[in-house]
Specification:
The protein is of the alpha+beta class. Helices cover 15% and strands 35% of the residues. The strands form two sheets. A six-stranded mixed β-sheet has the order 3-4-2-1-12-11, with helices on one face. Strands 5-6-7-8-10-9 form a six-stranded mixed β-sheet, covered by helices on one side.
Length: 230
């Protein structure tokens, strides 16, 4: 069994409008996940530098970022970053552009985890429902073209409809799980942050992480889950 987490960090800018990477890392440390998908990791303009310095991750955690960005100062692909515990093997990295009105992408990483292989897909889907429908269809079609592997899609799905009616393309291959209301931070009303697991994986337990730092570090709270083979 291993722990995963997903967190939209809003470029490390908290509700106090301070960019505070150590605060974000303290939230991640409290969760203790083996694999973490981050959204909105990189700044939007200029060199699009990561809002969390690589050196700070190395100095303060036992996590390492997967090399996803073609830009030296960035960490993510369209802001999607994947952190893994040191010792996990990275077997393959794929960068996927997603259709839609806004520039969006998905990060697809194959990992050699203790006791299992795992494909992780980090996503931040679009604001428009027609885009989300097209994006999940594009992701599932792309995954169908790859060798089969236990697969976990996680991130900010931006889906406000409580029945997830715009994510139905996932239904045949994945079980969609919303751990709880994660947005907005001060008064969570909706579970925008989700996991989608292939049928050979199952969630043992999971939830929305709440701690003093998480209440201020972003406009989303992180989600987590303990995953096992089904």
């Amino acid at each position: 069994m291993f722990r995963v987490a997903s967190y939209n960090i809003r470029k490390s800018v908290g509700l106090d409008y301070r960019r505070d990477a150590p605060r974000v890392l303290s939230v991640l440390a409290a969760i203790g996940a083996d694999v973490i998908a981050l959204q909105e990791t990189d700044r939007r303009f200029g060199s699009r530098a990561s809002s969390i310095p690589h050196a700070l991750i190395a100095e303060t955690t036992d996590l390492k970022p997967v090399d996803l960005s073609p830009r030296a100062q960035s960490m993510g692909w369209h802001g999607n970053a994947i952190l893994v515990r040191r010792g996990a093997g990275v077997l393959a990295v794929r960068r996927l552009d997603l259709p839609g009105t806004e520039p969006r992408g998905a990060a697809v990483v194959d990992l050699d985890m203790p006791g299992t292989l795992l494909r992780v897909v980090g996503v931040h889907l679009g604001l428009f429902r027609r885009d989300r429908r097209a994006q999940v269809s594009h992701i599932t079609e792309f995954l169908d073209s790859l060798p089969k592997m236990p697969t976990l899609i996680m991130g900010d799905f931006n889906e406000w409809h409580r029945k997830d009616q715009n994510l139905t393309a996932l239904n045949t291959r994945f079980n969609l799980h919303t751990p709880g209301h994660s947005f907005p931070t001060l008064r969570p009303l909706v579970g925008l942050d989700k996991f989608a697991l292939s049928h050979d994986l199952a969630i043992e337990r999971g939830g929305v992480h709440d701690c003093p730092a998480a209440r201020r570090a972003s406009d989303h709270k992180p989600i987590w889950a303990d995953i096992r083979a089904a």
